Amino acid sequence: MDALIKKRIKQVIKGDQDAFADIVEIYSNSIYQLGYRMLGNRHEAEDIAQEAFIRAYVNIKSFNQDLKFSTWLFRIATNLCIDRIRKKKPDYYLDAEVSGTDGLTMYSQLSSNAPLPETELESLELQESVQKEILKLPEKYRSVIVLKYIEELSLNEISEILDLPLGTVKTRIHRGREALRQQLRYV
Amino acid sequence: MKCNDEIVDLMHEYLDEEIDPKNEMILREHLKGCKECETLFNEYKKTIAVVKGTSRMQAPPDFTAKVMASLPKEKKKVGMQRWLRNHPLIAAASLFLVLMTGSVFSTWNQEREFSVSKQDNLVVQNDTVIVPEGEVVKGDVIVRNGKLKIEGEVQGNVTVINGEQYLASAGHVTGQIEEVNAVFDWIWYHMKKTAFDVIDIFNESEK
Known about the structure:
Largest sheet of chain B: 4 strands, mixed
Number of helices of chain A: 10
Helix content of chain B: 40-55%
Number of helices of chain B: 7
Number of strands of chain A: 0
Helix content of chain A: over 70%
Shape of chain B: rod-shaped
Oligomer: heterodimer
Radius of gyration of chain B: 47 Å
Strand content of chain A: under 5%
Structural class of chain B: alpha/beta
Shape of chain A: globular
Largest interface: A-B, 44 and 30 residues
Order of helices and strands of chain A: HHHHHHHHHH
Distance between the termini of chain B: 102 Å
Strand order of the largest sheet of chain B: 1-5-8-11
Structural class of chain A: mainly alpha
Distance between the termini of chain A: 39 Å
Order of helices and strands of chain B: HHHHHHEEEEEEEEEEEH
Largest sheet of chain A: none
């Protein structure tokens, strides 16, 4: 896949805009997912993911082709998410809980008319509370936790994405883990 | 309990998958005997499991199409700028050409005034320069914007710019006679002159 990405990037740099579609297709889910877990709702997730891809396209010439493209893309997307979180008003967390009840969207993911089995309902509630707790984390812990446990990236990659020393990334993951444990241990 | 800090560090090392076998042994041994740490450890593992277990979100089906539609279109101007960047030599050459043409035309237009090279025995009547009969003019004769009548002898080249020359039957010119009237002649004349000047510079420096 890396070879395909490299080829597509070269085509895009030469001016072949259509070659960018494959790149978007391959990474759309993980970038959208990142936005959703960082920001807490689908609308903003889509918005931020779109912007991340557009920025990647516009700045593709500044991408060092010896590096991993996904790291670069994740860096753009994570920075956009962090910027947006910082711009939000402090009452955001109240909003988040409401939009966290955006669990409506989770229900709608299931086939609409079928009655919800007990276990699935429970797992949905669990999902909701996990999402809520992730969103309660301060942005610096939230980003490492999302990159590590949702995107399943290595500590080294996270350190590159966030442009932080490995030690800092570890400390943040440990603190994020601790905060989540305290909230989620009885679920 | 004193064990906590060190053991918690080991737990994090374990959870980061960076623990070495020796420390892992220490951790395992400790957990066997310490109920409190075991509970903590299990809570961590459970937390990670539920976070990892959240459902994977899918981007909307039309996501790629939307992104592609909102990419900036390449402007023609951008294409032109890139072309210039990629062909600096041609860009420089055309700029030079434009400036050169401009300066040549302006010199042509400026030099509308009557002028003649300085030789003592040339006679000037209105806009006509006369080389009198029996006189010998030494050196090149250049007349701008006027007529030249040669009745005597010129030992050198004769150039008439934007005018006309008349060589009487008795007149004599040892060098070449040249009339420059149109702009293109003028340009050609300039180029030749520049080239000869350059050669002269070389010749002089050799001396």
